[in-house]
Write a structure and sequence with these properties.
six-stranded mixed sheet
């Protein structure tokens, strides 16, 4: 999900990646194996958007990289001062948290709280990435159709 929101500082772009037990897509190493020139250029572009001066490790999950940069680019397009990429985990044991932590470390984020990190991009927007735990009861809620 990608939402345009507002707080006291102005527009905020909020990208949410909700998970239960599924992984964050392929590893960068897997994406790079047998990649076309265009695919490699895309990965390099995404890394540069996050301020990486060298390639991210092959053990980083591509989906975290892509979703984070999507929030940044959308924030720029809407002149939002803040971009947020939030993982909402419905896993009872926070599966794949270690992938999120590895990604956070790889992009030199600074811990703000136990679950929120700020990434210095050297300009606008301000980037926040985070992990939150979704309530288990919402995994089985049936919502009435709006149609």
């Amino acid at each position: 999900m990608l939402a345009i929101t507002r707080n006291e500082h102005g527009l905020v772009i909020l990208g949410v990646e909700a998970k239960v037990d599924e992984i964050f897509g392929p590893l960068l190493g897997d994406k790079r194996t047998d990649a076309t020139k265009g695919e490699l250029e895309r990965i390099t572009y995404l890394e540069r958007e996050l301020g990486c001066s060298s390639p991210l490790a092959d053990s980083i999950r591509y989906q975290l990289l892509h979703r984070t940069v999507s929030a940044i680019l959308t924030a720029r397009a809407f002149h939002a001062g803040i971009a947020v990429m939030l993982v909402q985990s419905f896993s009872p044991d926070s599966r794949w948290r270690e992938d999120f932590e590895a990604f956070s470390a790889a992009i030199s984020s600074k811990r703000v709280t136990d679950d929120l990190y700020e990434v210095e991009l050297g300009g606008s927007p301000r980037l926040i990435i985070g992990w939150c735990k979704g309530a288990q009861e919402f995994l089985s809620v049936e919502l009435p159709s709006a149609l």
